[in-house]
Amino acid sequence: MNSYPPELLAQLAPVMFVAGLDVPSPNPQEATPSRQQDPFAVLKQRLRDALISQRKVAIWQPEKAKIFQAVLVDVDVRFPPRKLAPPEDQQYQPLHSPLSPLTPSSPLYPDGLIAPIWIRKHTTLVPSVFVLFKRIYEHPQPPPNQTGTAHADFDRDREAEERRRDTELAAEIAQRKRSTNERSIKLTAVLMASRRMLDDPALDARLTFIRRQSGLDPRAALFVLSPVTQAEIGDFVRSLQEALYEPALEYYTNHSKRVRRKRNKHSQGTVHIPVSPLGAGNSPRPLRPEGWTVRYEYKMACFAEFRGEDEVALKHYQDTYAALLVMFGSTAILPPRTKRWAEGKVLADCISVKICKLYLYNKEHAMALAHHSAHMRKFSDLSRGWGIGEETFEFWSWLSRQHRVFAELLEQGNWSTLEIPKHTPVPAPSAAKLAAQAAGPQRNAMEAEALRLLGINPTHALQHPGFYYYMAAQCTESRRERFLRALESEVRSIHHGSLSPGFANEKKVDHLAIVLELYTRAYEIFKKNSASPQGRQQLWIAYRIAQTYYASGKFDMAVRFFERIAKTYRREKWEAMLRPLLSTWYACAQQLGDMELSVQLLLEMLGHGVVVDQEDPESVQEDLLAVLKSTVPSNPEQSLVVDLTESGPLLDSTTIFWTPTISVGESSAFQITLTAPPTVQMSDLPFSSLHVHFGGDLPPVVIEHSQPEGDEGTASVQRIDLGRIHAPHPNDGPSPPTDVQANLRWPTGSSLVLTGSLGADFTTILMVTKLVLTLKQNSWTIELPLQPNSSRTGSICRPQWLSSVDPVRFLPIRGEAHSSVTVQNRPHRVSVAVAHNSPAYLGEDYPVTLDITNLDDRELNVVVDVLLHPLEVEHASSDISLDGQNSTSLVKGVALGTLVPGANITKTLILSVKGAIGDRTLDISVQSRTTGPSVANASPPSPNTSFTGDTAESLRTLVIPSVEAIKAEHTVRYKRPAKLSRGLGDLATFEADYSEDAGEAVVSTTMACIGQSGISVESAKLVREDGTRAKVRSSFIDVDEESFLSEWLTGDEFCDQCLISLSRDEDDTDDSPIPGPGHYEVSWRRLQPDGVKGSLSVSRFPLPQLRPPKDGLIALLDIPSTAKLHSPIAIHLTVRNQRLVRSANVVVQFDLDPLTDGFVVAGLRQGRLPVLLPGAEYRMTWNLIPVECGYVQIPKIKVTDRRPVIDAQLSSTNAAAIAAGGRPPQTDGEEVKIVDVRAEAVVEGSEPVVADSTRRGTILVLP
Hints:
Residues 340-607 form the Trafficking protein particle complex subunit domain. The chain is an alpha+beta fold.
């Protein structure tokens, strides 16, 4: 920003003049270490420091605190004159400011706009408030031994002296008051007094006298300050500024009103612009109306900025900028390349910076960037009209200045409060947001998704300052390029008048220094804001810095940058960036005289196909040969190794093995192809040898250069046979190296194919580890390591096999090309047969037969491992057993001994299936090892060679399903107790061993053979496990077990019934089931296909859990099944209350219809039974005489429990209804189920037979 006046860019703030704080310099002769410093001098110094440190002059200051720009002045400082009368005629001419364009002595006369001195006047010469510090007079203390008369005389003298001094002080303040009143400046006096003076009762009267005599305002015009601490000084300064801030705003507001009145008069056309009568014919042209608009709008913007009203200031600055554009749009108003034109451009640039800054204050980053871009675009268009277009250095100088000023503005903002927005990609919307968008208008959702995909326009995205420094550096480079063109034109041209006026000044500019500074600052900021330490833009800027160092002749600095940049470009294969870098780097090495570096760079340039001279394709090769022939290395005895691994290879190389695996003692054919690029000349490079390294203890194969005989040239494809290369046994000595001769010259596009075969007598992995080309010339020896498989960036090397040299014919390699060969031991011929009778039965020890046969011609040691996979079925478990080893998961290392050729061994693996059915998975590993001497005992010569012995492994995986051999199904039926239960009053119920009869359960068990193979049952029995609530009374299997002992085939079924008595205890209040009181135990053997019975297995089937029905209140109807006509029969109805805590009020109703019912009834027709307590029952009997034959339905019987009616009447709701005079709700009660005892046996899960009004029992009446 040094290119512009700082007054036009600085942030404006209210100005405060501070006078009276001059600290006298101490006299060296009077200063002693023991002398105490004057407290008022310390107070003045602290006040000076506090006021000056409140606010510094800066461009970026967005804070809106009530802080002044303090300026320390002398007590007798004078203000500049406001108006000057023209010397021609003071009677009729109006007065004007010394800086007005209407004043002949003004620097703006006659058509100037705004000069920086006007801003300087309001920031350093004219304040908004004036603070005057003065010391109030303090009379000395009276002597301590004065008498009354002397003391009275001392008081009179003190009062007279104080009044005289106060009058003088008031006169000084009044004189300053008159000068400030002329400019409407607020004057405030601060009187400094000691703490003793503050306690003087006469101080208030003296202060009132001074204020009135001096004419100070009654508000915020007079303060008293005593020597205080530094913290209290800060509080005083803040309170002083807060008290004077409103008068300062009023001062600048009055200025704005005055300027606005002038602008309004100007816009109404009432302003008279005087013309000097002296030489009216040649008088200069006055300022045009557009210029006055610029002046007035700019002044109002500045006064608004003084007041801290950023929005108002932004509006006036924009109006000023628009008026300036109107003036620049006409060459008649502002002719190009004139003084006023240059001043106007500076003013427009500064106003543009102000507008951008105010936008950034308000966090409107896009608006700030848009204005900055629009400013450069508009003035670029204007510059073309002025003849200062892109072909001139002035244009690029101005454009660079705009980018740099904007970058410096952003940088200053970053140091303070500005936050550059992060333009990260918008993430994809969540599922909830997508659902909300789908529910909303479809058009809005589509627009939002389109905006998310399109992102943000890069020209509308504010970047960090580094980007704009980079743009400024680019423009400066263009500026230098145009300047060099102009310099060439000056040399060629005879007449130099056509060059621009600033050309002479441009010659003094160090363009490269400016470019370096801008690129360096851009690099630092990019590095600070980049996510990665080596970003793309950072590397590019570093490359431009290196290029600039090269252009400025600082070759050593350029080389340092090139070394750092090239590492990343090589690693990431940035060919387009690396080629120009290598050319410039080589030029720097030439200038520095570094021959080793020059050779390395020339070889790397050959690898990348870089050409030094575009007209000479062999220029790089010629330069390399010239360096090798005319120079010597720094150390001739040591070879120079040029590693082009990360860079472009000098030759494209491919290595192919015909087979990926071979056995020990065999060989695999290979081909190594080295191909020269088709566009790079390297046929004259003096390669002396080529070393092929295979790794391990294999010696390298050396191919020496041999010049072809006669005039025979080098063929496009040259084939060299390396013969059979065999890796020696580790116990043998190293084999001698192989030497071969060949023509090591590669014309453009030619190939050298090395063929041979490679094998070993031990297990290992053979490959070509590296190729080393050696180049010799005079005292230079250069080694070039090459990768076995490498190609240039962009070139495609398809794997192919040379089948013929004349004519040249290649076979394409289909599938994967193998770059290594694995030497393996000869596989063992071991036969593993697994036999078993699937599926396995649950509870069975399942045999699996392993039959292992040695079909090899060698003796083999055999070891077996068996792995049982974990089961995913709940409650399922298994274990395995082999040769005495038992395990639930792994049987490892079962040695089967040594098998001679043709020998066979059989082992039985036992799998125990338990718990639950499910698939059991077994992995059987049969490992074999030769018994002869092995090279495993020899130490391996390299990490790639391993001697683990001649071993082999055969794997078998078995999935054995398991099923149940016997499947048992249970059916349970329940019977209610027939006898009367004991009541609550029976003392027997209180006995400890008392249990109430809960009926009987009949369990029918059906056992079926469901396996694929039959079984032989050897025993079957019911094992009793009687409990307190269930006991087995009898079972059919106990009587006739022999009927179960036989061979069961698939589908055979056997059934057994057992009778279980149930009991109920008064503590049994839960609904938990009763455990089965025993289990069936069946011992069986599996029938094998050959008739042999398997091992003994036992299956157990527990009796089911019992859930007898639980009745609350129930009626049991006992009726005969048959009757004789006209013979009486009796039916019985038993009502039982099996509730635990609730009694029952039962009503029985016997409905007889004479027309439809076929009986004559004797007995109770309707009545209430006695109250049934819990556990009680009541039995009723009716005598019926049938009068019809056939199946006759008994009359309807209805049993109702009236207890719910009583409970409802006693509830609070019904009681309230009765109290209100109403009636409780009427209900008939709860109907009780009637169960026909003839069919009352309940199968578990079904309902009992109920004899109700809709389903009545029948009797067969016989004649």
